[in-house]
Write a structure and sequence with these properties.
Layout lengths: L18 E6 L4 E9 L2 E6 L27 E6 H5 L5 E2 L6 H4 L15 H13 L15 H10 L5 H19 L4 H13 L1 H39 L11
Antiparallel strand pairs: 1-2, 1-5, 2-3, 3-4
């Protein structure tokens, strides 16, 4: 199928507003960003500068001027600085649940996304807000995937972070429910590798975004309607023939 294994995409096929990512450190995690056209990507990163060295020791990119070891927060760079030599992938939205569960966490979503204009506008706004335009970087609570998902849907979420927490919960629960042994430890690792249990949790978490967003809008709409009805019921008009002072 098209979604399975999240095939890499060619940079010549990228479109404005695309959510792209690339794997790092032998596919242990992925870095995410929003392609904004003209070989430029807006992404969220943390500063990796060594406090013992001056920022002048780091050379800026000749193409975009980005300094990966000194700049942090929401940044704009070229595709080369974003990918660091890794293959680019396209994050897919509105994916069927059955295909979602077959993919690596943090590579697709069952949620629909907004138009490219809105996506780029959100990313640009965060960029223009300065280094803390999207807040403090936090690996589990506020990372690059949170940023890219917010730009695409208006809701910040990171499925790879949630996946990591789900794996840890599965491992801890399994270890506490049975006595420790090499055999039991190997069985736990097999459970984690199969992904069956926590993949369902990740799917529910991804769909929960839609539920919460839709529910909030419905509650607001119902509140407005009830307010109008109550206002009409309690609005008193002068009776016929009544002389008002």
């Amino acid at each position: 199928m098209e979604y399975i294994f999240s095939d890499a995409t060619d940079r010549s096929k990228l479109s404005q507003g695309d959510h792209i990512y690339c794997f790092r450190n032998a596919h242990t995690y992925s870095h995410h960003g929003i392609y904004v056209d003209d070989n430029r990507v807006i992404h969220f990163t943390r500063t990796q500068q060594d406090s013992t060295q001056s920022s002048s020791n780091y050379q800026a990119c000749e193409d975009c001027g980005f300094q990966p070891n000194t700049q942090g927060g929401v940044v704009k760079s070229c595709l080369d600085c974003f990918s660091k030599g890794h293959r680019l992938h396209l994050f897919k939205y509105d994916v069927p649940s059955c295909d979602f569960k077959k993919n690596k966490s943090g590579t697709c979503s069952t949620r629909p996304c907004d138009s490219p204009d809105i996506v780029v506008s959100r990313a640009t706004k965060m960029l223009n807000n300065g280094q803390l335009g999207f807040g403090e970087y936090d690996l589990m609570k506020n990372n690059c995937e949170h940023f890219a998902r917010f730009c695409k849907t208006g809701v910040p979420k990171s499925l790879q972070a949630f996946s990591l927490k789900a794996k840890l919960k599965l491992i801890i629960r399994s270890l506490t429910e049975q006595s420790f042994s090499i055999r039991n430890a190997l069985e736990i690792l097999k459970q984690v590798a199969r992904k069956e249990e926590y993949k369902n949790d990740i799917l529910h978490h991804d769909q929960e975004i839609i539920f919460k967003s839709t529910t909030k809008k419905r509650i607001m709409l119902i509140t407005i309607i009830v307010t109008i009805i109550i206002s009409c019921l309690f609005y008193k008009q002068p009776r016929a023939g009544c002389v008002c002072e």
